[in-house]
Request: fold
Amino acid sequence: MNEHKIPSVGDWMITLLILTVPVVNFIALLYWAFSSDTNPVKANFAKAALVWGLIIVLLWVLFLGALVGAFMGALGAMG
Reply:
């Protein structure tokens, strides 16, 4: 059986530091989420962070689409 230790506060500090670096954070989350040698606690955290990131991107795209649609509608009403 593969036993994993509970991540320490120091482990989480390093994890959070890595997540502050653009692009590196996305690569790290993918690695932690899908690597077989990652601690299950960190793997679940990474999966949850990726899901939240996807939700935020989708909401952003919907908002941007509505904004562009409203702008185009306003331009059409002016002409």
Summary: The mean pLDDT is 93. Residues 58 and 64 are 10 Å apart (CA to CA). The longest helix spans residues 40-78. The chain has one domain: 9-78.
